Amino acid sequence: MTSMEKQTKQRMSVLQGTLDMLVLRTLLYGPAHGHQIGKHIQRTTNDFLQMQHGSLYPALHRLERRGWVTSNWEMAPDRNREFKYYRLTEKGRKQLVVEESQWKQMAEAVARVMWPAAEES
Amino acid sequence: MRWWQIRKREADLERELQSDLDLEEEEQRESGLPAEEARFAARRALGNAALIREQTHEAWGLAFFERFLQDLRFAMRVLIKSPAFAGIAILTLAIGIGATTAIFSVVSGVILKPLPYSDPERLVSVELNLPGIDQSDSPLSSPDYFIFREQSRTFQDIGLYALGMNSAGVPANVTGLGEPEHVLAARVTDGLLPILGIAPLFGRPFTRADDSPGSPETVMLTYGYWQRKFGNNRAVIGKTIDINGTPHVIIGVLPRSFQFLDRTNLALFLPLKLDRASATLGNYLFPGIARLKPGATTAEANADVARMVPIVLRSFAFPPGFGLKQFEDLRIDPNLKTLKQEVIGDVNKVLWVLMGGIGLVLFIACANVANLLLLRTEGRQQELAIRAALGASRGRIAAGLLAESLILAAGGGLLGLGLAYGALRALIAMAPVGLPRLNEIGIDGRVLLFTLVASLAASLVFGSVPVFKYARAGIGFKVREGGRSMSQSRERHRSRSVLVIVQVALAVVLLVSSGLMIRTFLALTKVNPGFAAPAELQTFRVDIPETQVKDPIRVLQTEDEISRKLAAIPGVSSVGAGISVPMDGSDNVGGLLVKDHPSDGQIPPTHQVFFVSPRFLMTLGTPLIAGRDFTWSDIYDKAPVAMVSENFARKYWGDPASAIGKEIRPSTRDDWRQIVGVAEDVYQNGVDRQAPTSVYWPIFMPSYYGRPEYGVQRVATFAVGSPRAGAEGLVNEIEQAVWSVSSTLPLAEVHTLDYYYTKSMARTSFALVMLALAGGMALLLGIVGLYGVIAYSVSQRTHELGIRMALGAQTRDVLKLILAQGVMLTLIGVSIGVASALAATRFLSTLLYGVKEDDPLTFAAVSVLLIVVAVLASYIPARRAAKVDPMVALRYE
Questions:
Q1: From CA B335, how far away is CA B309, in angstroms rounded?
Q2: Considering the domain boundaries, does residue A5 fall inside one?
Q3: Do A53 and B46 touch (CB under 8 A)?
């Protein structure tokens, strides 16, 4: 079994709630449309997160309803076509900070249980 | 995000997903895949589109609403597939909702709507109670007006008005505008219209100068009269018209929307012109309306008026023969109420009773529909069970069932609104003539809101019954069982039985109520009103103004001549003239002195006072019990004669015969007059009120209260006995006869006596018809409900009945078994109904006459009726059950 195959099998579905954070973080680079966001996350995680583009959209609409992002149909700079661009709001920026610190706490907590020795050393 | 943007949202999402797909497809193609495969790859990369859409919709927070729409759509499809069920349910509801809406629009227009004046809650009617002479709600006198207007601490202003003897309007003969015309006017003090917040449409309002005695005569026209007589011509201001022979300058036209209290047929407003210089105490003639200062309450105003009453008595002269003591003995007590209360009168109680009665019908209709729904839902148990098994939550199933109820109620509400619209016209047409604010009744926003609420409430009432029964957990195992018919479990049958019992009980309440009204109506018609054959008596009124005939004797001669001309019309049996006819709403109360019963300085008791010509009582069919009628020679010879009613004679002298020869007079300033005749009592104010003690003076006397001008009756109501009464032909001949004497005399109030008689019972007959309709509907719906339950139970028990018959049960036994079931339900319903009716009929007490609220006959008759009907309703299905062939029944299924 090659490592590549192994990795494919170990692809994880994105944890509920984590996706929001990933999207917000992605938008920190600037406005993007759904496809770009999806591609970015896939690329950055080396396709480790098993994520279909579609699952982004409910998340994007949820974020918009909460006022963390805004959306607008805009002409793409590189081609003659309109896309729905999402933009991080001030509120979204704050939310990202909150989620990030929550995630860190969570990860540290899990780590302390899983690898107590590593903590000591 | 609003729900109506949902379509836009959906389109937006589609576009967004599509652009994602396009991009992905492009990229895949660029990586070397063929076009076809690239498209599939793009789809795969996107994922399950339907799921994405659903999840995104959830993200919008509108899922609840969308599910609801879905339920409605599904329910609609289900209902369309069973049109018979839907039709019957909607029709039943429509009848209930329609009837309730119709009666509510009456309640709304008459009771709930504020009066159409500015700040109407600050308007009060100012009246006095005079317990000393047993008079309540007495109008005010002119001294009251002057003192109240000047010295009140709680009134912003007060105004008085006069609407003539029977409160319909002051008669006014308008001449000089084509044909002489008889119209009705209101006389008002200058403050009255401003108090109501009414300014003229154009022209100017009355001023104090207009309202002062001796100033030039002025008049304001109502919009309707202005339109009718002058078209749209605004140049009428400053023109002069002749009213009762006197020229009046038109100073203003009132707005179209203006209506004075509930009088719709007024043409003119004239200044009342009360004279302060000659005002004396007494003469309580003019109703008052005041506007309270902001913040003042009716109770404070009452106290304020009570404070001013002694001031009035100290500030003005007493009428001759009276002093302070007599006025103190009146024990004048202010009685202020809101103007609305005054306008509505005692009708609100009747209307609420009717509203309650009709509301019960809606309730019964709901019970019927609930029953239908139960049957239907039971038939659908498998479907529901499968839905539950497939994962539908209890709430989801309940929502589905409720959505059906909602659609039924909406359909019922819409159709009901249409029915109400029609029913309202019928209702207004048959409403009691005295029903106030009739023209303000209509279907308006408030009524629509009521219909909406009633429909929603109804859908909850009947819709929740099957929901509670079938949407609970544990329905799952029914999938296995439901296919096989079993004898009904008691529990399953109970809710339908309860509904039938409720229906029967409510039907009992309504039928008892209408039964009591029927008894009341019969009791009223049995009372001898003091006149005979009212349908064969034509009446009309003629006013002979002073400007037209000045000499009092000439007035009498004119009236005499008209009588003779009328008597000459073929087929006319008898003719007479008086100031009013029975039950026409006139109320002419006066005091008088009885020679052998001196009043010793007390205020003499009051009586109904009439002025009549010879043969007038005979024409009415009021028999003389003792003595004789007036003769024309009595009148022309100025003979000192009088007649009294039987109860008057009994009150003073014990029996009618002894009254003959006794002497009475109107006041100390008149001569004594000898009683020559005693007439049977006449129920002047309707048969449900006591017949007043009455005195009949001749239609012409040299003087009355010492005033010659009061001795002549310029307003005469003629009574013409003829079998053709009411026919247009006779009315034409009568007009010709009158005009042959004087061509400028218009006829007013042309009615048969029966019109007044029917009118006097209108309140009773209105309540009777409405309650009888409600009772009839309740009975019909109740029978249908009972029949349905029995028939269904028979169909479910076919198997069991077959076994019974196979084991030897006879037809008779089966009949008995089924009938017993129906009768048992009915008996329970009737006993609950009788108990409820005993409580409910208390609200009817003000409407009843000659029958007690707990009248045993009515209660017994209704109970028997319902039991008989119930036996019939159960007999049909019972018969069918008894005919069951045991073999067929056993093989069944």
A1: 12
A2: no
A3: yes
**B59 to chain A, minimum CA–CA distance in Å?**
5
Neighbours of B94 (CB within 10 A): 23
Res. B650 pLDDT band, cuts 50 70 90: very high
- The pTM of this model reads 0.71
CA-based nearest residue in chain B for residue A34: B20
Average pLDDT over residues B476-482: 45
Kindly tell me if the per-residue pLDDT of A10 is higher than 50.
Answer: no
Name the average pLDDT for chain B.
85
- Residue-wise pLDDT tens digits, B551-609: 888 999 999 999 999 999 998 999 999 988 888 877 777 778 888 887 766 667 778 89
User: How big, in percent rounded to 5, are the helix, strand and coil portions of chain B?
Assistant: 55, 15, 30
CA distance A62 to chain B (A): 5
- What does the pLDDT read at residue B255? 93
CATH number of the domain where residue A115 is located: 1.10.10.10
What's residue B644's pLDDT?
94
Question: Phi first, then psi: what are they for B493, rounded to 5°?
Answer: -85, -20
8 A C-beta contact, residue B606 and residue B326: no
> Alpha-carbon torsion B301, B302, B305, B306, what sign?
negative
**B41/A contact by beta carbon, under 8 A:** no
Q: Which of B337, B343, B340 is CA-nearest to residue B301?
A: B337
> Contact B56/A57, CB-based, under 8 Å?
yes
**Own/partner long-range contacts of A88-92 (Cβ < 8 Å, ≥24 apart):** A88/A24, A88/A27, A88/A28, A91/A66, A91/A67, A92/A24, A92/A27, A92/A63, A92/A67, A92/A68
**Which helix (DSSP H) or strand (DSSP E) does residue B611 occupy?**
strand B606-612
pLDDT attached to residue B526: 87
Enclosing H/E stretch for B156: strand B155-162
Q: How confident is the model at residue B165 (pLDDT cuts 50, 70, 90)?
A: low
Query: Between B883 and B365, whose confidence is greater?
Result: B365
Domain that holds residue A91: 10-120
Strands (E), B501-597: 537-543, 574-578, 589-591, 593-594
Inform me whether the C-beta atom of residue B52 falls under 8 Å from chain A C-beta atoms: yes
Q: Do B60 and A53 touch (CB under 8 A)?
A: no
**ipTM exceeding the 0.85 mark:** no
Which phi and psi (to 5°) does residue B669 adopt? -90, 5
Domain range list for chain B: 3-61, 120-344, 489-527+757-893, 545-744
Q: How many domains does chain A have?
A: 1
In a domain, A36, yes or no: yes
Q: What is the predicted pLDDT for the residue at A15?
A: 62
Shortest distance between the Cα of B53 and any Cα of chain A, in A, equals 8
Residue B849 has pLDDT above 80, yes or no: yes
B405: closest CA among B350, B455, B360?
Answer: B455
- A91 found inside a domain: yes
pLDDT of B477 above 70: no
Mutate to test the interface with B, among A19, A42, A51, A57 (most CBs of B within 10 A): A57
When comparing pLDDT for B298 and B479, which is higher? Answer: B298
**Percent above pLDDT 70 for chain A:** 81
Residue A1 lies in a domain: no
Residues of B in contact with A38 (CB under 8 A): 20
All residues of chain B having their beta carbon less than 8 Å from the beta carbon of residue A83 are 19
Q: Do B24 and A35 touch (CB under 8 A)?
A: yes
Going by C-alpha positions, the residue among B146, B157, B151, B169 that lies closest to residue B123 is B157
The verdict on a CB contact (< 8 Å) between B12 and A81 is: no
